[in-house]
Amino acid sequence: MRMWSLTPAVLDAKGIVACWRESLLAQAVLAGKTKGYTHHPQLERFRACEHPLAAVASYLEPLADEADRRGYHFDRSRILERPDPELRLTVNDGQLSYEWRLLLKKLEQRDPKACARMTERGPQPHPIFLVVPGPVAAWEKVIAGV
């Protein structure tokens, strides 16, 4: 499961579709509607919120907005709660940088042209996240060489 801390705008087609599906899975886990992935480390940051389902909804909404901009159709009726436009989670700058390197590594293989364009852009957070100083998150499973 990868719920990117990066803005959906930098995800390629495969990346945004996978993120949408995996975020819906995370929502199902937090709603108690599935038995799988219940201890997935990426869910820690959503579980830490007072209203985890609103947090996931607030994460899903910008993914759907980006999909709309691209002419895709993500079924917003699958979002269980109303997004909270004021809700912000924090992400360490070290985590954001790690995810940026991981995304570039994936794009190198899937779409080298997109990767070349992205290297000029630099990491930008998903709208739900406020960037704070700090290392890669403790829950992250760091891949060697990234």
From TrEMBL:
<dbReference type="GO" id="GO:0016829">
    <property type="term" value="F:lyase activity"/>
</dbReference>
<dbReference type="Pfam" id="PF03013">
    <property type="entry name" value="Pyr_excise"/>
</dbReference>
<protein>
    <submittedName>
        <fullName>DNA lyase</fullName>
    </submittedName>
</protein>
<dbReference type="InterPro" id="IPR004260">
    <property type="entry name" value="Pyr-dimer_DNA_glycosylase"/>
</dbReference>
<keyword id="KW-0456">Lyase</keyword>
